[in-house]
């Protein structure tokens, strides 16, 4: 690989092929990275990065930056790697390069994980997955979700980890990828064991083994055996656990295994040694410890050597102890056999004597029993007759008493039950009637209140719109008035020159310019009126293709003039960063404009509220931007005003919730905006805010 990359580099340099030079240097960096020569790898990656930068190939430069970051992370140079990752992530975001931005965020996740800053690592990983999904790179996002599941598992958030594993499995099952399925089912089986779901763990490990056998890869099959042994050990079946672990060790010892399996083999040998100790199989424990020691640098470490000597001593001691125990058991058994035979002889003699005595007793008892039986039979026959007569008499009396009691109880119980039933029915009727009247009154009050709040919101919106129209149309009307006055002044002078026969071309030119300006600003005023009428009327609910930049520009201007009409002394900065491709989408333009207008107006209100108590260096600013992200358009509206309190952020899209003072808002503006974007256009709207520093709304619309 190195020779081919070197030849390619020489050829590219001779042709002055910048992309070829950059690619060749990158391949050399990969070669040295695979050989764990991080110093030379970094040198070649940096040279490749510089070549791509000079050639203006920014996307290629970002890809090489990812390799540089990975090399720095391998050397545990986390600070340098983190600075480089943050800078290039911001650059990828500015370029709209979603693929490299997602990979760079994943690199930041690995750096933070290496620094044990798990919260930041998790945030970067989630954002990486979101960006890759938004640009259609679902396979990369799915692979990264496996890392997210591991993060949740380390946090002991096992339910979230399980949800992600099951979602990833749906993708891999759809693509029929046995390698990915074997690995994911194995991880899910381990998760089930931690959750004590042993039946699920057994089922998932069976599926993992099924897919591993399809790959015919001893690595995957060995891992399935190793994890299955963990399940057997967790359930107390040490014999099965040891057998499964032996199978995994055989597979990990297969020829042509790559170096990465050395750790798996060492772990299997270590666990086999521990299981053998638990089962007191000292010979096998000594064998496993010896193999583990040879794998760990041929028993060089003192700890391993001492452990093996201890196992060997235990084995010999156990062997001698067992032999001595067997000899003692043989001697005891012989003595017990002699005693048993002597006792049996004595018992046999005693048994014969007892049989003779028992025979005599049986003869006497039999005679006496026959006499007693004859006497008892006679007495019994007489008693049976008396009992039969007495039973009949008692049964007749009990029947009469039972009939009388039953009749009395029926009469008393029926009357009492009827009275109780009537009382209960009447009480329930009164209670339900009273509850129904209360509910009807409450419903009427709620409907009246809702109608009043909606009316207030509409009137507030209409007042803002009216102020915006008045302020917006004031400029063109001023121009029309001024240029009309100029025209009036020019007419007498023109008449005098015409009478005197002088040249009037300059006056005519000036008059023509004034007339043109009057016409221009008259058309502008007409356009403003028509736009405001269209916005006020609401238009059709049918979607039409519209330019998002134009709608956002109109909403910003309308909100600005509405604010200026209410507060003439307020002067705020407006920064616009529109996507140059002029993104268009199928929209109900008046509804979307109403959303932009509402959020911009709220931003100006926040800036005005933040003016008190700020120093002179603070510059109030409203920032609006649009950018195309794959199949969607992102609109950001941000201000550096007061921000939203933390306790109110989760409620701002709820109907009738407002942070404005009493009388200044109904709480329906953002709720209606949420319905327009999410339900009406299939988009999304979210808010990020820091109290005292500002607020940013992110609106996403499908293209």
Strand order of the largest sheet: 2-4-5-7-6
Number of strands: 7
Number of helical regions: 21
Structural class: alpha+beta
Strand/helix succession: HHHHHHHHHHHHHHHHHEHEEHEEHHEE
Overall spatial form? flat
Beta-strand portion reads 5-15%
Radius of gyration equals 46 Å
Share of helix among residues? over 70%
Low-confidence stretches: 298-309
Main sheet record? 5 strands, mixed
Short recap of the structure:
The chain has 703 residues and is an alpha+beta fold. Helix content is 77%, strand content 7%.
What does this structure look like?
Helices cover 77% and strands 7% of the residues. It is α+β, with helices and mostly antiparallel strands and 703 residues long. Strands 2-4-5-7-6 form a 5-stranded mixed sheet, with helices on one face. Strands 1-3 form a two-stranded antiparallel ribbon. The model is unreliable at 298-309 (pLDDT under 50).
Topology, pairings included?
Blueprint: H1 2-14, H2 18-34, H3 38-54, H4 58-74, H5 78-95, H6 98-114, H7 118-134, H8 138-154, H9 158-175, H10 178-194, H11 198-215, H12 218-234, H13 238-252, H14 261-278, H15 282-295, H16 302-500, H17 505-537, E1 544-547, H18 548-566, E2 573-577, E3 584-587, H19 589-610, E4 621-629, E5 632-639, H20 646-649, H21 669-681, E6 684-690, E7 694-702
Parallel strand pairs: 2-4
Antiparallel strand pairs: 1-3, 4-5, 5-7, 6-7
Helix pairs in contact: 1-2, 2-3, 3-4, 4-5, 4-6, 5-6, 6-7, 7-8, 8-9, 9-10, 10-11, 10-12, 11-12, 12-13, 13-14, 14-15, 15-16, 16-17, 16-18, 18-19, 19-21
Please describe the structure with a list of short key phrases separated by commas or semicolons.
alpha+beta; 703 residues; 5-stranded mixed beta sheet; 7% strand; two-stranded antiparallel sheet; 21 helices; flat
């Amino acid at each position: 690989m190195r020779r081919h990359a070197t030849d390619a580099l020489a050829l590219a340099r001779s042709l002055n092929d910048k992309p070829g030079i950059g690619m060749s240097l990158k391949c050399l960096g990969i070669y040295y990275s695979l050989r764990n020569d991080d110093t030379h790898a970094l040198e070649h990656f940096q040279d490749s990065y510089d070549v791509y930068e000079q050639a203006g190939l920014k996307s290629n430069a970002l890809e090489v930056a990812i390799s540089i970051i990975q090399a720095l992370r391998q050397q545990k140079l986390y600070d340098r790697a983190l600075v480089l990752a943050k800078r290039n992530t911001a650059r990828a975001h500015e370029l709209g390069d979603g693929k490299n931005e997602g990979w760079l965020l994943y690199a930041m996740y690995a750096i933070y994980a290496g620094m044990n800053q798990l919260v930041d690592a998790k945030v970067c990983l989630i954002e990486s997955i979101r960006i890759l999904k938004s640009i259609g790179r679902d396979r990369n996002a799915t692979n990264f979700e496996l890392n997210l599941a591991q993060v949740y598992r380390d946090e002991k958030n096992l339910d979230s980890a399980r949800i992600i594993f099951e979602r990833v499995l749906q993708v891999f099952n759809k693509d029929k990828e046995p390698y990915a399925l074997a690995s994911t089912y194995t991880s899910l089986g381990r998760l089930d064991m931690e959750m004590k779901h042993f039946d699920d763990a057994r089922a998932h490990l069976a599926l993992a083994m099924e897919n591993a056998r399809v790959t015919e890869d001893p690595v995957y099959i060995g891992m399935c055996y190793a994890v299955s042994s963990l399940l057997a050990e967790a359930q107390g079946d040490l014999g099965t656990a040891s057998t499964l672990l032996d199978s995994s060790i055989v597979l990990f010892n297969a020829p042509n295994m790559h170096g990465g399996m050395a750790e798996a083999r060492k772990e299997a040998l270590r666990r086999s040694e521990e299981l053998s100790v638990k089962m007191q199989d000292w010979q096998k424990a000594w064998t496993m410890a010896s193999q583990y020691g040879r794998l760990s640098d041929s028993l060089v470490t003192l700890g391993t050597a001492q452990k093996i000597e201890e196992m060997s001593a235990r084995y010999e001691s156990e062997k001698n102890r067992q032999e001595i125990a067997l000899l003692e058991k043989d001697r005891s058994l012989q003595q017990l056999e002699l005693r048993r035979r002597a006792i049996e002889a004595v018992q046999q003699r005693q048994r014969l004597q007892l049989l003779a005595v028992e025979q005599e007793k049986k003869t006497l008892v039999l005679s006496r029993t026959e006499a007693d039986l004859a006497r008892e039979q006679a007495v019994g026959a007489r008693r049976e007759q008396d009992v039969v007569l007495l039973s009949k008499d008692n049964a007749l009396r009990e029947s009469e008493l039972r009939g009388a009691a039953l009749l009395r109880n029926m009469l008393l119980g029926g009357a009492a039950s009827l009275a109780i039933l009537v009382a209960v029915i009447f009480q329930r009727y009164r209670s339900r009637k009273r509850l129904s009247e209360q509910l009807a009154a409450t419903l009427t009050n709620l409907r009246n209140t809702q109608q009043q709040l909606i009316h207030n919101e509409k009137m507030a919106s209409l007042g803002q719109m009216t102020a915006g129209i008045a302020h917006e149309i004031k400029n063109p009307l001023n121009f029309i008035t001024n240029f009309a006055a100029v025209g009036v002044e020019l007419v007498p002078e023109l008449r005098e020159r015409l009478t005197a026969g002088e040249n009037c071309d300059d006056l005519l030119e000036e008059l023509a310019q004034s007339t043109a300006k009057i016409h221009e600003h008259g058309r502008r005023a007409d356009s403003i009126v028509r736009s405001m009428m269209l916005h006020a009327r609401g238009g059709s609910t049918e979607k039409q293709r519209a330019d998002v930049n134009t709608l956002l520009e109109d909403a910003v201007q309308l909100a600005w003039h509405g604010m200026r009409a209410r507060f003439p002394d307020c002067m705020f900065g407006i920064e616009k960063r529109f996507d140059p491709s002029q993104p268009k989408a199928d929209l109900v333009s008046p509804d979307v404009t109403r959303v932009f207008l509402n959020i911009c107006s709220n931003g100006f209100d926040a800036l005005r509220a933040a003016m008190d108590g700020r120093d002179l260096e603070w510059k109030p600013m409203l920032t609006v931007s649009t950018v195309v992200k794959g199949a969607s358009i992102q609109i950001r509206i941000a201000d550096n005003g007061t921000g939203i309190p933390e306790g109110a952020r989760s409620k701002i899209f709820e109907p009738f919730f407002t942070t404005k003072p009493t009388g200044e808002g109904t709480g329906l503006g953002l709720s209606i905006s949420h319905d327009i974007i999410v339900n009406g256009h299939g988009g999304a709207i979210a808010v990020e805010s820091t109290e005292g520093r500002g607020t940013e709304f992110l609106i996403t619309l499908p293209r």
